[in-house]
Amino acid sequence: MSTLYRLYRPQKFADVTGQEHIIQTITNEICAAKTAHAYLFSGPRGTGKTTLARLLAKAVNCQNRKDGESEPCNECPSCAEISASRNIDVMEIDAASHTGVENVRENIIDSAQFQPTKSKYKIFIIDEVHMLSTPAFNALLKTLEEPPAHVIFVLATTELQKLPATIVSRCQRFTFKKIGFDQMMSKLLKICKDQDVKVDKKVLERVINKSDGCMRDAESLLGQILTLNQKNIGPEDAEMILPTSNARQILNFVDAILNRDVKSAVALINELVSDGVNLEQFAYDALEILRLLMILQYDPTKEILDYSDEDAKLIKKMTKQAPAEQIIKLTDALMARRAQIKSAPIPQLPLELFAVEFSNCHSGLDTESIAANCHSEAPLSGDGESLSPSITQKIKTTLDEIKNKWHDITAGLTEQNHSLGFILKMGEPARMEGNELYLRVPFSLHKEKIEEQKTKKLIEGAMTDAFGEKICLICEVTQAQNDDGEITQLASEFGGEVVSL
Ligand SMILES: [Zn+2]
């Protein structure tokens, strides 16, 4: 099935996916019998360069094609032989393979001097032409400068910038583009229909997203999926072939980001890496969640489809907690980071940077100040890409002022929340770093309680009221005790005892 690419290789110009402008020009030239002696096709892999080169070869040599027509008949001996890659006058050379480079002189240059054996044109298709050696380029250039009338060169490359300008200037040049989503989808649907297999649209979307505009990759992936040999293929069936993160992991990641919980976010990213999940796809899925959150901001009645009830609940919770502005910033940043994944020296680094980027302020929910802190003060670029924890702002309030008012603040909070007041009384304002107040608490359970979003917001709000400026709260645990001791001591503080551990 991995030969789908070959099986569905277009046999007519009309069947080619994408590259319309190129096909238009070339077919016009064929109709008018005004083909060039040298073409240069450049563009990403899997976008149809060699496919078009072969179609061109077929069309110009087709024995049944009439003047003013451009499509090859696909029936005459010449067409049939080219389809089967055994036409003596059409030579395909892959310059990326060793032999191609070594023998370029005899294979191409010398052979070009002879008339075609039984066709009108002798056609040389040189794939990855940028790989030719300098002597080979020089020899090729000589031929291009005075091309024999019966010869057509089609040079194809993914790296145009590596070609000598002297070669480029001798060719009619076409730039191939990545194939668009809709075009890919219609081709894949056509293949599925032809194979009589129903493949869930979600699976096809995933295939397309994974293929990044490369039709050959998309067809190869679809080919692997079709080897499942089922008449109906859903997302779960395709999971083995298209390793994917599950919805819960994506939601947890977005949730951790919204909560500025770098530790969880980074742990999750590394879990994905060891599971072999495609990180680009994961980032794409996370973007889909952010998009959904954005839509829900404006249309809270929108039904949340494609998620379990439990996940839908989490999504609703996130919608309430994240203002549109924050979603927009996160979306922008994640789109940029996603684009870096492919070329990153460490694949998970861009996502990790994304997580750190949005954790730089520890304040729970005040996104305006987060935006100010995280963006204007601390652009993450160049050597600024360290994983150092926090970027802080200078403020006027001093530690002593906080210490002096601490009793009043906790008393005020005790009225609103009794147990919180109790915990805060045990806490001690230890130091200020920029706009961050480090509060020392005796137990990690206290820290967890205080750092709950809701609680933190409450305390930070009280401090803003008291000092007239934004102070972020960070907890530190003073005693390193093991959990058992901690719980036992806590229980006794509350007048109870631990029943079982
Ligand atoms: Zn023909």
Write the SSE topology.
Elements: H1 4-7, H2 20-31, E1 38-42, H3 49-61, H4 77-83, E2 90-94, H5 98-102, H6 104-112, E3 122-127, H7 134-145, E4 151-157, H8 165-168, E5 172-175, H9 181-195, E6 198-199, H10 201-211, H11 215-226, E7 232-233, H12 235-238, H13 247-258, H14 262-274, H15 279-298, H16 309-321, H17 324-341, H18 349-357, H19 367-376, H20 399-416, H21 418-426, E8 428-433, E9 436-441, H22 444-450, H23 453-467, E10 472-477, H24 483-493
Parallel strand pairs: 1-4, 1-5, 2-3, 3-4, 6-7, 9-10
Antiparallel strand pairs: 8-9
The structure holds zinc ion (ZN).
Please characterize this protein's 3D structure.
The protein starts with a helix and ends in an 8-residue tail after the last helix. It has 501 residues and is of the alpha/beta class. Strand 3, helix 7 and strand 4 form a beta-alpha-beta unit. The longest helix has 20 residues. Helices cover 52% and strands 10% of the residues. The chain has a five-stranded parallel sheet with strand order 2-3-4-1-5, sandwiched between helices. The chain has a three-stranded mixed sheet with strand order 8-9-10. Strands 6-7 form a two-stranded parallel sheet. The protein contains 24 helices and ten strands. It folds into four domains: 157 residues, 3-Layer(aba) Sandwich (Rossmann fold); 58 residues, Helicase, Ruva Protein, domain 3 (Orthogonal Bundle); 138 residues, Up-down Bundle (Zinc Finger, Delta Prime, domain 3), CATH 1.20.272.10; 95 residues, GMP Synthetase, Chain A, domain 3 (2-Layer Sandwich). Helix 13 runs parallel beside helix 16, helix 14 runs antiparallel to helix 18 and helix 15 crosses helix 16. The radius of gyration is 32 Å and the shape is elongated. The site of zinc ion has 9 residues, from helix 4.
